[in-house]
Write a structure and sequence with these properties.
Layout (H helix, E strand, L loop, with lengths): L1 E5 L10 E8 L2 E8 L11 H31 L16 E7 L5 E7 L3 H5 L5 E4 L5 H15 L4 H8 L6 H13 L10 H23 L11 H20 L1
Antiparallel strand pairs: 1-2, 2-3, 4-5, 5-6
Helix pairs in contact: 3-4, 6-7
């Protein structure tokens, strides 16, 4: 990609002037700017300089198209070398499992560093689920990815609101154990699904509260979270009585 000047006798067809070429994906473009009408083949001739500037302008326009095309692929597709069940729909973020210092398997999102950091051999940043729920980890992942790779705000927001399902880690664990001989225990998935389990538990508690009609006789409707707490208390007291 770029601008190339052909002087007399340098191009097999006899062309004299500038050729601009660009290639990205399956798209290859070229355009010629002849300077044969110039009296001098240098910037002292106004026509030569005019054609050179036209060629450089065309090259810049195509470079911008190429950059925008590469950026669009970066924020909407997995990298071509991404292995099965690891991709999340963008370049630079992948799902995986690692072993921590204690030898315990952890589910992680890996975020690739920017090009400068990559050249310095800085490893991808790891985001585990040990301390934070799934949604908060994804927020941290996308924040770091967007900052590291200069992602536009609208693309960051779109990726943030399109997290991969936790079930992807379940499929990935099965794949790694079956095809690569890894021995990742099912317990490694527990932190990934903790938030989902807690949500289901709250919904069930709320439904039990409604079924038990714990708000019967109240002067005004009881809030859902209070009903859930009342249900949990009621169940704990019932279980205590049974034990005693």
């Amino acid at each position: 990609m770029g601008v190339k000047y052909y002087d007399s006798g340098e191009h097999p067809s006899g062309f004299i002037g500038f050729r601009v070429t660009v290639a990205f994906d399956d798209d290859y473009r070229q355009k010629y700017f002849s300077t044969v009408a110039a009296s001098q083949q240098n910037d002292s001739d106004i026509f030569y300089r005019y054609q050179r500037l036209r060629a450089e302008k065309q090259n810049l326009e195509w470079q911008m198209e190429s950059i925008l095309y590469q950026y669009h692929r970066f924020v909407t597709e997995d990298h071509p070398t991404t292995k099965p069940e690891r991709g999340v729909g963008v370049h630079g973020i992948t799902a995986n499992f690692i072993q921590d210092r204690r030898g315990k398997w952890q589910a992680v999102f890996l975020v690739a560093r920017d090009q400068e950091a990559f050249q310095k051999r800085r490893r991808s940043k790891e985001f585990t689920f040990r301390s934070n729920p799934y949604s908060e980890v994804w927020q941290q992942v996308v924040d770091f990815w967007a900052q590291e790779h200069n992602i536009l705000a609208e693309d960051k927001a779109r990726v943030l609101h399109s997290p991969p399902a936790p079930e992807q880690f379940k499929r990935l664990r099965r794949l790694l154990n079956a095809e690569q001989g890894w021995d990742i225990p099912v317990e490694a998935l527990s932190p990934v699904f903790r938030e989902q389990r807690e949500k289901i538990a709250r919904e069930r508690a709320l439904q039990r509260a409604k079924d038990l009609r714990l708000d019967a006789g109240a002067m005004k409707p009881v809030q859902d979270d209070i009903q859930a707490e009342m249900t949990e208390w009621f169940q704990s007291m019932t279980e205590k009585e049974l034990v005693e």
